[in-house]
Amino acid sequence: MTARSDIQAITDRIRERSRSGREAYLARITDAAGKSANRAVLGCGNLAHGFAVCTPQEKIALSGDTVPNLGIVTAHNDMLSAHQPFETFPALIKQAAREAGGIAQVAGGVPAMCDGVTQGMPGMELSLFSRDVIAMAAAVGLSHNMFDAAVFLGVCDKIVPGLVIAALTFGHLPAVFVPAGPMTSGLPNDEKARVRQLYAEGKVGRAELLEAESKSYHGPGTCTFYGTANSNQMLMEIMGLHTPGASFVNPGTPLRDALTKEAARRALAITRLGNAYTPVGRMIDERAVVNGVVGLHATGGSTNHTIHLIAMAAAGGIRLTWQDISDLSEAVPLLARVYPNGLADVNHFAAAGGMGFLIRELLDAGLLHEDVQTVWGEGLRAYAVEAKLGTDGSVVREAAPATSGDEKVLAPFAKAFRPTGGLKVLAGNIGHAIIKTSAVKPERHVIEAPARVFHSQQGLNDAFRAGELTGDFVAVVRFQGPKANGMPELHKLTTVLGILQDRGQRVALVTDGRMSGASGKVPAAIHVTPEALEGGAIGKIRDGDMVRLDATAGTLELLVPATELALRPQAGADLSENEFGFGRELFAGFRHLAGRADQGASAFGNAA
C-alpha cells in the first residue's frame, strides 16, 4: 500500500526542504564507496596492523577484497542491565561470520551511561552529550577502513541515537543494529511508582524504596517501562535497521542468540562484495525517518526523540523539524498503552502482538511508507511478522497475529486509544516547547496558574519538603538547557509534581530541560527554546506571573503585557557548580557548541 496523502505530503515537504543537504550527503557516501572504502587502499604496514591477531587463513582472506569483514561496534558494559548481555555477542557474531564465509572483528567500544543511575546526580549533565561522544567513538573504530559492513550493539537512551549518527556518517557501509532485549517482568511499574510516591511523602523508608526498585530492575535486559531505551528498539525495527521481529526478545534465550547470529549473516550478505549492497546512508531516507516518527506517536514513545530524531536525520542530510513531528502526531493514533502511558510493560506489549502487529496495522491504514529499503532486503511489509525459534535452532517467522492478544495494551487501528499520538509543539511568547499528552488526562490539558520559579530541580524538591508548594502553580525550572548544564533529565520532579496533582492542586511544569521517556501524568512543557542562557523569555518569568499552558490550542504564554516583558532584564544564574566534578569540566566545549533543542542539541551543528 502507498502512504496516506497527509503522510505523503509531510514526507514530500521534508524531502524538498532537505534537497540540497541530502544531495551533498549522498554524493559524499558515493565518493567514499567508490574511492577509498576498502582494504585495497591500505599499505602493507597498515594492513598488517589491522589483522595482526587474526589466524593465518583470515590474514590471507583480508589481504584482498574478496571476503567481507564485519566491524562490531559494541556498547557493552556490565553495570548497565541492558548492555550486560552484549558480553557474549561478539563471539556469536564471529562464529556466524565464519560459518557464512566472512570475518568479524570488534572495531571498537563506545561508552554507555545509565540515566537511571545518574538521575538527579551531577553525572546526568553528561548524558545528552554522551550521544555525540558515542558517535565520535564509533567513528574512531570504523575509521580504520578495514570493514565492509558494521553491526551496532546498543540499546539505551543516548547510545542508539549516537550509533545511528555514526552509522550514517559512514553511510557507504551497510549497518545492522542488534538489540539485547528487555529484562523479564518484575514488580509492576505502577506499584514501583506508588512506593516512590510514598517515600517522597515520608510514609515509607529507604529500605522499602530500595526493595521496590530492586524488584523492578532485577536482571539482565532493558528496563521494562516504555522510555527512551525501548523507544529506541521500536525505532530501529520500524526504520528497518533491525532484522524483523528482533526488538523485544528477552536476553539469554535461544531465540535471542539465533537472532544475533542471523543479524551477522545478514550484514555480510548486504556488502558491496555481494549482489544486495545496501549502504545505510541510502537506506535511511526521508520515508524511513517519517516511519520512525509515526512509530513514536503510535506507541506513545519518548519525548527525547523530539531531539534525537532531528540529530539522527541531520547525520543523513535530512532536515526534520518539530513541526513535522507535531503534524505527524495529529495524523497518527495511539495504538499502545505501555507504562507510563498504561499499566503494561514491554513484555506485555510483545505478548499482545508487538511490533509485527503494530507495523501491520499502521501499514494497512496507510500511515507508513511500505516501499522503503530495509536491512532485510524487502519493504516494510516483511516486518509485519513474529520471530520464533525453529526446530533446527534457526529463526522462523510467522505472520503477525490477526487480532491483538490484549486490546488494553495493543489496540487495532479501528479501536485506537486516542485519535492522535500525543506529542505536540507549543508556541507563544515564552518560546517553543514540546508536550507529551498521551498520559495526561484531558481535563489537565489547559493549566493557567501563577509561576513558581526555580533554577534547579533540587530547588523545587526542597520547596516541596518545606511545605511551600501550596495552591495551583506552574513550576518554571530554567537554566537546564544544553548550553547551561547539558540539558539533564529532570525525572526527579515527576514524583513530587504527581503528589501535588493527586492532592487536588492544578500544577504544570515549564522547563528548558528534559523529562525523558518517563514523562507522565503531569502536563509538562519541556525543551523550551530558546533556553534561558541564550536569552530566551523563560529567563524573564518572575514568581507570581500568570502562565497559561494550553495543550489543546498548542500555546505557551506568559500573561504579561508585551511592553512590560520587553523592558524586563534577563535573570541570571550561578552555574559555576555545573562546570566541574564528575567529568563536567571535560564537556565545557560541548556546552559551548551545543545547538538548540529543536535542532537536535548537537555539538556537531545541523549537518543537513
UniProtKB/TrEMBL annotation:
<feature type="domain" description="Dihydroxy-acid/6-phosphogluconate dehydratase C-terminal">
    <location>
        <begin position="408"/>
        <end position="601"/>
    </location>
</feature>
<dbReference type="GO" id="GO:0009255">
    <property type="term" value="P:Entner-Doudoroff pathway through 6-phosphogluconate"/>
</dbReference>
<dbReference type="GO" id="GO:0051539">
    <property type="term" value="F:4 iron, 4 sulfur cluster binding"/>
</dbReference>
<dbReference type="Pfam" id="PF24877">
    <property type="entry name" value="ILV_EDD_C"/>
</dbReference>
<keyword id="KW-0456">Lyase</keyword>
<feature type="binding site">
    <location>
        <position position="223"/>
    </location>
    <ligand>
        <name>[4Fe-4S] cluster</name>
    </ligand>
</feature>
<dbReference type="GO" id="GO:0019521">
    <property type="term" value="P:D-gluconate metabolic process"/>
</dbReference>
<feature type="binding site">
    <location>
        <position position="156"/>
    </location>
    <ligand>
        <name>[4Fe-4S] cluster</name>
    </ligand>
</feature>
<keyword id="KW-0408">Iron</keyword>
<feature type="domain" description="Dihydroxy-acid/6-phosphogluconate dehydratase N-terminal">
    <location>
        <begin position="68"/>
        <end position="381"/>
    </location>
</feature>
<dbReference type="GO" id="GO:0005829">
    <property type="term" value="C:cytosol"/>
</dbReference>
<dbReference type="GO" id="GO:0046872">
    <property type="term" value="F:metal ion binding"/>
</dbReference>
<keyword id="KW-0119">Carbohydrate metabolism</keyword>
<dbReference type="InterPro" id="IPR042096">
    <property type="entry name" value="Dihydro-acid_dehy_C"/>
</dbReference>
<dbReference type="Pfam" id="PF00920">
    <property type="entry name" value="ILVD_EDD_N"/>
</dbReference>
<dbReference type="GO" id="GO:0004456">
    <property type="term" value="F:phosphogluconate dehydratase activity"/>
</dbReference>
<dbReference type="InterPro" id="IPR004786">
    <property type="entry name" value="6-phosphgluc_deHydtase"/>
</dbReference>
<dbReference type="InterPro" id="IPR000581">
    <property type="entry name" value="ILV_EDD_N"/>
</dbReference>
<keyword id="KW-0479">Metal-binding</keyword>
<dbReference type="InterPro" id="IPR020558">
    <property type="entry name" value="DiOHA_6PGluconate_deHydtase_CS"/>
</dbReference>
<comment type="similarity">
    <text>Belongs to the IlvD/Edd family.</text>
</comment>
<keyword id="KW-0004">4Fe-4S</keyword>
<keyword id="KW-0411">Iron-sulfur</keyword>
<dbReference type="InterPro" id="IPR037237">
    <property type="entry name" value="IlvD/EDD_N"/>
</dbReference>
<dbReference type="InterPro" id="IPR056740">
    <property type="entry name" value="ILV_EDD_C"/>
</dbReference>
<comment type="pathway">
    <text>Carbohydrate metabolism; Entner-Doudoroff pathway.</text>
</comment>
<protein>
    <recommendedName>
        <fullName>Phosphogluconate dehydratase</fullName>
        <ecNumber>4.2.1.12</ecNumber>
    </recommendedName>
</protein>
<keyword id="KW-0311">Gluconate utilization</keyword>
<comment type="function">
    <text>Catalyzes the dehydration of 6-phospho-D-gluconate to 2-dehydro-3-deoxy-6-phospho-D-gluconate.</text>
</comment>
